[in-house]
Request: fold
Amino acid sequence: GEDYVIIDATAEGPVTVSYEGKNCLDDRPVVVKALAKQHWQLADRFRESAQKLSKLKHKNIASPIWSTQDS
Reply:
């Protein structure tokens, strides 16, 4: 099954779309940030940014949980 469910779109920028979501395993709210399909050529840069963000540790910075999927 799926670990996360999308509830609603919350924001759309020029390159990404953010969605309100829920972690199905523990019912925690999550934000899902996705690269807009028309910007697929930026996928490597998007992935690199997520990897850099995952190394930051601070109480005011949420830890990313991410994966890539073709849809």
Remarks:
- The helical segments are 43-54.
